[in-house]
Amino acid sequence: MGMGKAVDRLRRATGSGVTEWTEDRPSRRSLKTLHLTLQKITEVLAHELGSPTTAVPEWSETEWVVARAVAAIHGVSPLLADALRWQGPAGWRQFLVEQKTHTAKRFLRIQELLRLIDGHARRDGLALVPLKGAALHASGIYVAGERPMADVDLLVQEAQLSPAVRTLTELGFRETYRTWKHRVFELDGNHAPAALGEHASNGIKIELHHHVREILPLRGVDLSQVVWPELPHPGLNSYSSKAALLMHLLLHAAGAMIARGLRLLQLHDIARLSEGMNDEDWEEVLRQAARTAEGSLWWAFPPLTLARRYYSCVPDRVMARAASDCPWMLKSVYRSRTLADTSVSHLWVTAFPGIEWARSPRAMLQYAAARVSPSAETVQLRSAFAAVQPHVSGGTWAQLSQGQRMLRWIMSPQARHETLQPVRAALRDMC
């Protein structure tokens, strides 16, 4: 079936103007419809993953297609394949099963890469810590095929950064770009990523970190000393503790929330790890937080609140401690904010995303000024990211100057390309 016929059939079935979602400049009305659809589906899938029911959602044909995009956006397709107690349409079920298969095959490639890195690091006397997804798999929190991994994150001490770069270069990786957060390495000839979700042959990136830090916003929160093991050895090391891994997951989720980029997978990671934590582990979280430069868990309240909302996985005393540390405005906002509000399921470009995280009126003004007049480094990073991640940053928006962006945003609400692209890919897959 051709694209036009497939979309026409969807349009006749729903009367939603869905054809416009595939165009470069969809109408405002059709985008509003899409935004509401994304919000609704995101919340349903989040609650189903946290507390599965037997009730099949009463979605239109269009909504079932958008559901594939939502599952891909949030990285939970393989998890849904196992967790859902209902089947849904045949196409939906087939998509989930295929995503689980691709995720399992891709993980085997990542495992082999980690073995190679471990061998080279041992030879070179280089200590590395695999972060987030790799650590969760190594701890047995996930098995192959459950959790997608877009890339491999590695932490190295700053003094060993140059040897680490040499090791990755020997393995055939070259640096493609860098940010304040990490340096990104890719293999020459990496396959372009699949348009929607996971694919076994997608290229594997390595993100090399020499600190574990997020800017929330304009203020850095650093957990490097918490994460780094007390007695590291050459090769791949584990986090210093289960508490350190959880704190990193929470901080990474907090950083994603700033840009409305949180994924359901991140909340699921927090929930899965929390399930295996005892009272001593949670006490260590509180102790380690007190020893950081921040001296508290103020930044952890929003991700803990959302994780608890969908999974009921956080003890009362930990929530109470995080709440007492958290600034009033931030706490107030996240008592009602949902995953759909805080993720890529939020369709619209926001002028000052995450401004509620600023801890004083002065910090808010500084953040707003940085958004209105970004630094040369920020503009350069935007261009570099757009070049290497066209599926995320593509479209005309990525090529506009700051002034053009502001003018277009003032004239009409702007849709995020990273949200539209998976929806369009899901529609194409219907052909």
Give short descriptive properties of this protein:
8% strand; 6-stranded mixed β-sheet; alpha/beta; 20 helices; two-stranded antiparallel ribbon
Care to describe what's here?
Among the domains are: 1-73 and 416-431, no CATH class; 361-414, no CATH class. The strands form 2 sheets. It has a 6-stranded mixed beta sheet, sandwiched between helices. Strands 6-7 form a two-stranded antiparallel sheet. It is α/β, with parallel strands linked by helices and 431 residues long. It contains 20 helices and 8 strands. The protein is globular. The relative contact order is 0.12.
Uncertain segments = 10-16
Amount of helix: 40-55%
Determine the oligomeric state from the structure. single chain
Distance between the termini: 5 Å
What gross morphology would you assign?
globular
Count of beta strands: 8
Q: Kindly state the mean pLDDT as a whole number?
A: 90
Summarize this, please?
This protein has 431 residues and is an alpha/beta fold.
SSE layout:
Blueprint: H1 3-14, H2 28-50, H3 61-73, H4 77-83, H5 90-124, E1 127-130, H6 133-138, E2 151-155, H7 161-170, E3 173-178, E4 183-187, E5 205-209, E6 213-215, E7 220-222, H8 224-227, E8 235-236, H9 242-258, H10 264-275, H11 279-291, H12 301-311, H13 316-325, H14 328-334, H15 339-342, H16 361-372, H17 376-388, H18 390-393, H19 402-411, H20 417-429
Parallel strand pairs: 1-8, 2-5
Antiparallel strand pairs: 1-2, 3-4, 4-5, 6-7
Helix pairs in contact: 2-3, 3-20, 4-5, 5-7, 9-10, 9-11, 10-12
